[in-house]
Amino acid sequence: MSIAKSISTYKEELGKVQLVAVSKTKPSSDILEAYNAGQRHFGENKIQEMASKFEELPKDICWHMIGHIQTNKIKYMAPFVHLVHGVDRRKVLVELNKQAVKHHRVINCLLQVHIAKEETKFGLDREELEGIISELTEFSNVKVVGLMGMATNTKDEEVVNSEFAALKALYDTHADTCGWTTLSMGMSGDYKLAIQNGSTHVRIGSAIFGARNYS
Ligand SMILES: *Cc1c(COP(=O)(O)O)cnc(C)c1O
Question: Considering only the top CATH level, what class is 3-209?
Answer without folding.
Answer: alpha beta
